[in-house]
Every structure is written in C-alpha cells, then in structure tokens.
Amino acid sequence: MKAQAPTAHGQGLSSQARNLHWLLTNLVDEVPGIRSVAVVSSDGLLLLSSDPERVAGPPARPGDSDGPKGSSADLATIVSGLGSLTSGAAKLMDGGAVKQTMVAMEEGSLFVMSISDGSLLGVHATPDCDMSVIAYHMALFVGRAGHVLTPELRTELRKSMENVQ
Q1: Domain range spanning residue 134?
Q2: What CATH code is carried by the domain that includes residue 47?
Q3: Which of 44, 51, 104, 107 is the least buried, fewest Cβ under 10 Å from its Cβ?
C-alpha cells in the first residue's frame, strides 16, 4: 500500500510550512516504493509526516507491514536514533558528517538523510524499491527544504503535528 500524502494541518500555516508539506506530498506521490516519510528535528521531534493522522494513533494491526508498527512517531524515533548512532560512529572513526544512512532489511529499506540544520529526513520503503531513485528524490527534498527549515518554522511544524493528536 502506498504511503498516504500529508495533509495540511490547518488553514493558519505559513507559506513556508505549506511549501514543505507540498514537497513531502510530492516525494510520497512521485516516488514508487515509499511506505512512509518523516522529517525529524535535531532534538528528535516529529516535524512532518506522510501519515499525520497516525502521529499518536492506534497501533497498527498485527501483520500490517505498511510502516513501522504504531504510528508516525515510531518512524521519527527510529530515524532520530539511527541518526544519532551513525553520527557517533562517524565521530569515533573521524569520518566527518554523516550524509546518508541506508538499512536494507528483508521486508523493506530505511533511508536517513541529514538536512542542513541538523534535522533528518527518514524514508521507509518497500523491499523492491529502487534505492538510487529514493536517494535521489530525498536529496532533492533536502536541497529544497534545508534552507527554509528555520527555528521558527520548526516550531510551527512541531505545533501543527501536536494539533493532529
């Protein structure tokens, strides 16, 4: 099942917030194999989601493999943890900043890409996805979103996610 495109969380969103929602909608709609997407702040809070109605919704049905079990918040937690783990590993190895992390699993793939302000873009994809296509479209999103993700916009997005709950 295809990830659900994000919806606006209210009429009061700024044009920059609406633009980020639009970019995320395009990522979900145009890239085959994407199950769910989350943008997570540097402190681990969910800012944008491809499934905003499940931010803190009921747990997924047993056997539901359309995304992490539970909610979009689960994907945000996984993305934040993986981002932290890989950043720590890069420091220990004197590897510089982590640009992208990819985890291939039997039943799917997880991609995490850094956004310029320390936020992270996470994508959970199907096992048969074209990894290079997903990575390319993630890089486009990061390039377009990174410069507008200001502290004020992060606060606005975080509040809009809280209002969905």
Answers
A1: 15-57+66-164
A2: 3.30.450.30
A3: 107
